[in-house]
Amino acid sequence: MTDNEIQTIRCNIEAVEGFKFPLNETFNLEVEIEEVKYEFRIHLKDNSDKLLILPTGKITKNTTNNRNKPIFQRENWYFEESTIHINDPTLYINNEIKAGWMIGTKNNWYLETIAEIIKKIADNLFKYDIENQYGNILIYGSTISAFEAIMLSILIKNSTSITEMPYLEVFRTNQRALLNHIFTGMSIQQIHEKYGYRLNVTELIQKEQYIPKIFTFIDYTVNEQYNNDFIAFIKQVTQLPFIKTKNENRIIIELDSKKQGQKQLLKPWQLREIIANIHKIRDKNYYDSSTIQREKIKQQDEKLEQYETKLKKQIQEITKNNKEIEMYKTELNQHIEQIQQKNQEIQQYQKELQQQKQEITKNNKEIQQYKQKQENIIQTQDKTIQKQQQTIQNKTKQIQEKNNKTKQQKNEIKIQKQTIQNKQHIIEIQQKRNKNQQTTIQYYQQKHGLKQKILPYIYILLKSKQKTTSIKLYKKLKNNTYFNIGYYLNKNKDINNKKWTQKLTPLTHYITYGINEKRKPNPQQKTTPENKKTLLKKLNQQKTKKKY
């Protein structure tokens, strides 16, 4: 079951004792007190009369990057008892803190509040007498969580803590993070003077005047310092003035020499065995009567270790085989992909081949149709050719007849051409005579000097009949590159405007831009502009026509 699938119940501390919690299923409980969230993962079983508490110690590398949600250690372990896994809210204070010890803040001791919540949950689940209240509560932890388990068992009186290699004092490890983020600005001596009962198991026992029930496992091969610390703890406890004189051993210690360092000594199945026999273990007679049983357990442990060794080897072989299988699977998948790809290519080729076959069939049909059409065309052409040949034969006959006629006409034309050539020769002789006569007349006419000067102006003189002004106008026209006749006519009132307009339009009358005199065209005249050379050419042509 994932975290998202687990139900979360939120309530205040007053409602915990009367709340009806679900049975035989895992759920989260969230109790908020003074803006601090106390979070628990709980699984209550209707067939169990014990309540097992599992606090969180030092977080592992796998959980250091996920600090925005609660951390429940050992939640995958199976127990027949009802279980409560505790998240330490101290871990939310700063990411540098890897072990919170449930210390909380200067003004709020989280472990004390957690103990109160657990007692209210137990009061909700079980009906206690005064003598056996909380006697069915077991608290398990190792190293740092073992410290938390012992401290909780002091506050939850009559409960039992099962611990492995417990720390007995906080500042044996991880001093910097706690000093920087919890006890800011205080020295270790000041912290011990004010908060010693939070940091040391012996000081809390003295404060509560209560020795808890502790069943602990210790590997004495860890180091000498740890052994000295634990021996000092036992001496301090035995010298307390309020220690009971009953024939009851409240702190049971089992020594081992597994040489594992400060690590968890018990396996889950061993812890389940201890929990099942916790009341027997707490009895002194148990150790006198169960020596053989303990030897059997040791033998079973040795066999289990052998089985574990074999199992590890088998797991390694299985892992190796799984890797090979994965490699074969990968190669097989690659071959399958290649085969699928080739099948797709074959299908594509088949489609293309089918299309080509269809195109060939279509082309064959078109070729047959084309051949049929060609045959029909050839047949029709043969018939047409036969008709044309018959027509040609008929026309050749007609042509022969016409050729005979044309021969006759050619003879007649030759005779006529000869007659025309004779006439043309006579005309040419006559023209030569007339030309000689005209040259004589021109020479006579141009003989006088005055006539030679006036000759270019004859046309204008004849048209205007005002000799002085016409000559003046022609000279003006001849001496200027561009000339505006309309402007000139308006300026010289002695020239008849209407008469010039009639005589010079449309062949000779024009309007040009007087560039030399910087004049604009007269807007009243609406004729087509032409250059001077064109006008003079037209004047000369008219003059020549007039002469001849």
Mean pLDDT: 77
In CATH terms, what is the fold-level topology of the domain at 3-286? Rossmann fold
Give the overall silhouette.
elongated
Strand content: 5-15%
CATH architecture of the domain at 3-286: 3-Layer(aba) Sandwich
Helix content: 55-70%
As laid out across the biggest beta sheet, the strand order is: 1-2-3-5-4-6-7-8-9
The residue ranges in which pLDDT falls below 50 over 5 or more consecutive positions are: 281-293, 443-469, 499-529
CATH class descriptor name of the domain at 3-286: Alpha Beta
Q: How many helix segments?
A: 17
* Rg, alpha carbons: 67 Å
Order of helices and strands: EHEEEEHEHEHHHEHEHHHHHHHHHH
CATH superfamily of the domain at 3-286: Alpha/Beta hydrolase fold, catalytic domain
Helix-strand category: alpha/beta
**Alpha-carbon distance between the two ends:** 130 Å
**What about the largest sheet?**
9 strands, mixed
Please count the beta strands (DSSP E, at least 2 residues each).
Answer: 9
Please tell me about this protein's structure.
- There is one protein chain.
- This protein has a 9-stranded mixed beta sheet.
- The chain has helices at 13-16, 110-125, 144-155, 175-181, 188-199, 201-208, 224-238, 268-276, 278-281, 284-289, 291-445, 449-454, 458-464, 467-479, 485-491, 497-504, 532-547; strands at 7-11, 26-33, 36-43, 51-54, 82-86, 137-142, 160-164, 213-219, 251-256.
- Among the domains are: 3-286, Rossmann fold, CATH 3.40.50.1820; 449-547, no CATH class.
- A hairpin with a 2-residue loop joins strand 2 (26-33) and strand 3.
- It is built from 17 helices and 9 strands.
- It is α/β, with parallel strands linked by helices.
- Helix 3 runs parallel beside helix 6.
